[in-house]
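Standup notes
- DV: blocked on the single-chain target, sequence here:
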Amino acid sequence: MSEVFEGYERQYCELSANLSRKCNSAAALSDHAEQKQLKFLEIKAGIDDADVLIRKMDLDARSLQPSVKAVLLAKLREYKSDLNQLKREFKRVASPNANQASREELLESGNADVHSASAEHRERMAMSVERLNESSDRIMESRRTILETEELGISILQDLHQQRETLLHSHNKLHEVDDAIDKSKKVLTAMSRRMTKHKWIIGSTIGALIFVVLLILYFKLFHS
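- DV (later): unblocked, structure below
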């Protein structure tokens, strides 16, 4: 459900209950014309505010998905009916044709019915406010869950980032080790080549020395 719609709905329920109480109190002000006129102005302003809230709820509901929109528009029809009832009640109370007898009849014979209707109206509004509060609690709980999930996700991402940095560092170290091994292989290969070369040189030198020694012996034997 739309949080914007719920905010308007909560305001309307509170305003409707307040207007109902003001209509009842205005009906009892039979001998206080000035106070009654002020009360009528307050009620008229409140009804105008209620009309604005109804229009805002209608606009918000129609901007939502069809499944949600259908539910909200059904609720909105109830609020429109409730507001029309308040307007009729205000028109009846503020009517200049109302005489003393009708007021006395309202205050006496019809007083019980008016209070009964007001009590039912207030009870309905109270239930609506209670449902709104429960919805708000559920929304707050959902927000807490989302925040906790977001914090957990951030923590996991940070851990993954640290692991990635560790892996990259290890990868770089492996490259360094590979480079060192390649250099060592090159050095060993060069040393092996030099040793082979030295072996040939030493072998050649020894062969030449042996040849010289044999040649000297040969001359000594045949010229002595």
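- Follow-up: The chain is about 90% helix and 0% strand.
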